[in-house]
Design brief:
It is globular and about 50 Å long. It has one domain (about 1-275): 4-Layer Sandwich (Metallo-beta-lactamase, Chain A), CATH 3.60.15.10. The strands form two sheets. It has a seven-stranded mixed β-sheet. A five-stranded mixed β-sheet has the order 8-9-10-11-12, sandwiched between helices. By secondary structure, it is of the alpha/beta class. About 25% of the residues lie in helices and about 25% in strands. Strand 8 (about 180-185) and strand 9 form a beta hairpin.
């Protein structure tokens, strides 16, 4: 089984979005007032070549329509303009990136979504034949009042969006109290905090665990720091810290390769892993 990365776009966020001791409304105000922008960060999805299930995607990237302000309520338009910018054109659509590797959209059998924020669901509509897998808690969060205040935009979902809901009923997986084995050598574990039903994907490739972490941490830089990103700081800082602690423990104990979705080192470290270099 092999994994490779797909980058849909590069963006910049306010520096205090990534790390600060502040939480709740205070953190939001800090980010709003921050004048410093981060380095460019990727918006990664993952393609898994599974020996039995074929091509499985993890997340579906950011679509350019996410920049169309008509998709958001007025308050969120202001927040978006203040907190994020795209310094360069978007990358080719995910189906075109796959096509460059000889894979057609119809070859994608499943799409596992770590969470339903817009930068992880953008190209879902390109894969109508794929089964979409989302944690039950995550999908239910999108149906609650004021879901848009937690980063959910149903207007960006495909029409008649009805994913298969994941319940973590397969018992413990190493230090995770609950898990779900979806396929041979592929598990999902609950990692709430950044969103209520956030899940991370763990695959075994060439005898080693690879963690497709989603947004458990923004990048490797913050992996072992006692801090959380702004979304987690506003929505669920304690859960986010607990999820991070479990992931740090798992990664160290299992010598896993940890790959967050917005880390500029994720792709080179994954490439180094398959080339058996020490960078991983």
């Amino acid at each position: 089984m092999k994994v490779w990365g797909l980058n849909s776009a590069n963006s910049q966020l306010k520096k205090s979005w990534f790390s600060s001791p502040r939480e709740g409304f205070s953190r939001l105000m800090q980010v709003m007032q921050d004048q410093e922008w981060s380095e460019s960060i990727p918006m990664l999805s993952w393609a898994i070549e599974h020996p039995r299930e074929g091509i499985i995607l993890v997340d579906a990237g950011e679509h350019p329509r996410a920049l169309e302000q008509k998709n958001y309520p007025a308050l969120n338009r202001m927040l978006n303009r203040n907190m994020v910018r795209f310094p360069e054109p978007f990358q080719p659509a995910l189906d075109q990136q796959l096509k460059a590797k000889g894979i057609h959209a119809s070859d994608v059998s499943h799409i596992i979504i770590t969470h339903l924020h817009q930068d992880h669901v953008g190209y879902l509509s390109l894969f109508p034949k794929a089964r979409v897998l989302v944690s039950r808690a995550e999908f239910e969060a999108t149906e609650k009042p004021f879901a848009h205040m937690k980063g959910y935009w149903p207007s960006l979902f495909p029409e008649s969006f009805k994913p298969d809901l994941v319940d973590f009923k397969d018992g413990t997986f190493h230090n995770f109290e609950s898990s779900k084995m979806l396929f041979d050598d592929l598990w999902v574990v609950p990692t709430p905090g950044h969103s209520p039903g956030h899940q991370s994907v763990i695959v075994k490739s060439q005898g080693r665990y690879l963690v497709l972490a989603g947004d458990v941490t923004p990048s490797m830089k913050y992996f072992e720091l006692d801090t959380v990103d702004m979304v987690s700081a506003v929505g669920g800082p304690q859960q986010a810290r607990q999820s991070k602690q479990k992931m740090v423990q798992f990664t160290k104990e299992q010598h896993a390769l940890y790959l967050p979705s917005h880390c500029s080192t994720s792709l080179p470290r994954l490439e180094a892993f398959y080339q058996q270099k020490t960078l991983a």
